[in-house]
Structures are given as C-alpha cells and as structure tokens.
Amino acid sequence: MWKYEKRLEFPVNIKEPNAKMAMFIMSQYGGPDGEMGASMRYLSQRYTMPYKECKGALTDIGTEE
Fold first, then answer.
1. Which residues contact residue 55 at a Cβ distance below 8 angstroms, ignoring those fewer than 6 apart?
2. What share of the chain in percent tops pLDDT 70?
3. pTM of the model as a whole
4. Dihedral angle at the C-alpha atoms of 29, 31, 36, 42, nearest 10 degrees?
5. Is 9 annotated as a binding residue?
6. Where are the coiled-coil regions (predicted)?
7. How far is CA 42 from CA 12, 15, 19, 32, 53, in A?
8. 37 Cβ neighbours under 8 A, 6+ residues apart
9. 35: annotated binding-site residue?
10. d(Cα 9, Cα 19) in Å, to the nearest integer?
C-alpha cells in the first residue's frame, strides 16, 4: 500500500538556525493540537465505530494526518 523511500520531497537548506521557529514547528506536530494528536484521535475513535464504512473513513483520515 505504501512505498517507503528515505528522501525528502523538497531539498532543505538551513542557512541560519532559529530555535524559536523550531520549537513552534515541533509544537504543531507533537503538541496537543498538533498533527500527531489529531491522527491518534481519529485512529482511536475507529475502534468504537459500529459501521464498517465509517470505520474505514476514520482509518483513512487518521493515516493521512
């Protein structure tokens, strides 16, 4: 279903590090309102869903997040 290639989609060239921006980006991915939190909520809700169609939709949304 997925093909894993260890390469970046776009090249990243960091000219000067910015610690404040790095902390902001990390909070968006791993914080309570970040991408990982949303993904885990979708994937955990799928186990209580009684309908297969809705369960499949939650699985798809969770894996895309």
1. 46, 49
2. 94
3. 0.52
4. -140
5. no
6. none
7. 30, 37, 31, 14, 14
8. 30, 31
9. yes
10. 23
18: pLDDT confidence band, cut at 50, 70 and 90? very high
User: If you average pLDDT over every residue of the chain, what do you get?
Assistant: 83
* Number of Cα atoms under 13 Å in the Cβ half of residue 61: 15
Query: Rounded distance, CA 29 to CA 36, Å?
Result: 6
The verdict on whether residue 60 carries a ligand-binding annotation is yes
Which residue in 65, 45, 46, 42 sits closest to 55, CA to CA?
A: 46
Give pLDDT, residue 52: 85
In this structure, which amino acid lies at residue 49?
M
Provide the residue count of the chain: 65
